[in-house]
Amino acid sequence: MWNPLDSITVRTFLILIGGTMLSGALVFTLAGTERKNLESHLRTHHAAERIEQAIQLLDSAPQASRQAIAQVYANYGLRVDLAPTVGVVGQAPDSEITQELRQQLGSDRPIEIVDQENKDCPAFTGPHPEDKPHCISVFTALKDGTRIKLDVARHDHPPPPFRGNFMRDLITFMAGLAVFAWIVALMTTRPLRQLARAANALGSNLKHPPLAETPGPREVREASIAFNRMQASIQSYIQERTFMLSAIAHDLQTPLTRLRLRLEKVSDPALRTALVADLTVTQSLVREGLDYAHTITTDEPFELVDIDSLTEALCNDAIDAGSEITFDGTSNTTIWGSPLALRRCISNLMDNAVKYGQFAHVSVQKSAGKALISVIDGGEGIPAHDLEKVFQPFHRLEDSRSRESGGTGLGLTIARIIAERHQGRIILKNMGVAELGLVAVLELPLAPSN
């Protein structure tokens, strides 16, 4: 099951998006708090200015005109009581308005301020009427000693959280942020993807070109240099080992040929037959060792190959040689590969089936953009825990891969190397059906023309 969180690109993207959204939410919260504090300060300053202006106007007006001035202010949310006789019950307001009024009116003027919510408060005349009347009651005295009370309506309606096109702008911002975060995630993980592709390519082709050490972050350059050094070391090691194997196998052929000629002079027929059989096995091992070295080191050119014709021709050749092989099925496809290498690969699978399963049934079909060549034998199959081990060089099963059967343990190894060089694979499965043993399926990608 595909898990998107397995991708470092997706994780980087989510971290960028999540971190930015968290930072944005924090900034939005702090900005909203600061905005509320600023609006509260401005309302307090505005209320203090209105009270100061009213008191200064009443100070300068004749006593006969003060009632008329009070009636005018009543129309604008400020009620002036020129003969206060009853106090009000409320809470002490914030110290900010008290300090501002004392600073503007003078510290020698008596000032008492009460913050209250009741029906006696003047109604707020702004765009958002309050559910509960809220006002500040200021008790003070004019310069001539007249006691007055001023009730100033306050607006405490919270501002709407979203105004105008806020949601549209937020969605646009988030979409742009997502695109930007995805681009950054791709740029950040691109060196890792290149390294992974190079490692996969190295696994199927030791001669794959090294990574380009392009300018970039220091860590990426160091990783590319280290990977190229590792690739060069592996190539050198494989080349030295392969050359040694090839040289040993090649040099053994001459003495083995002389030995075979001398064995023909052995007078005892039974002994001669046994010695010749052992020598034949040894020569077969030498030949397969050469084939193995040739498969690893040779880089044969690729061309379009008709897989149906190639497989059918191999089956006909094997039938002419006396092998019990049947063939059916067509895929009507071509693949991009080396004809000689593919012949060696399919032949090894067929020889393996005939050698250990008495017969081989070969079929070709097309499935999911791949050509499938299946080889079924009539043997006893292979234990499940050994299905992967048989691909190891010189690995033989005790019961079926014995010296008497002529096996060397390199046939499947060579076949897998060729398959992987063609971007394919070989799958071994037990049929689990009477009279049928093992099925080897060679999967090869189709050529682009298909």
TrEMBL record:
> What compartments host this protein?
Cell inner membrane
Which membrane topology term applies here? Multi-pass membrane protein
Q: What is its EC number?
A: 2.7.13.3
- Please state the protein's primary subcellular location: membrane
For this UniProt record, the keywords arranged alphabetically read as follows: ATP-binding, Cell inner membrane, Cell membrane, Kinase, Membrane, Nucleotide-binding, Phosphoprotein, Transferase, Transmembrane, Transmembrane helix, Two-component regulatory system
**Which SUPFAM superfamilies does UniProt cross-reference here?**
ATPase domain of HSP90 chaperone/DNA topoisomerase II/histidine kinase, Homodimeric domain of signal transducing histidine kinase
| InterPro entries in the cross-refs | 2C_sensor_his_kinase, HAMP_dom, HATPase_C_sf, HATPase_dom, His_kinase_dom, HisK_dim/P_dom, HisK_dim/P_sf, Sig_transdc_His_kin-like_C
Record-linked Gene3D superfamilies? 1.10.287.130, Histidine kinase-like ATPase, C-terminal domain
Is Repressor a UniProt keyword of this protein? no
The record's listing under PANTHER family reads: SENSOR HISTIDINE KINASE ENVZ (PTHR44936:SF5), SENSOR PROTEIN CREC (PTHR44936)
Know the name of this protein?
histidine kinase
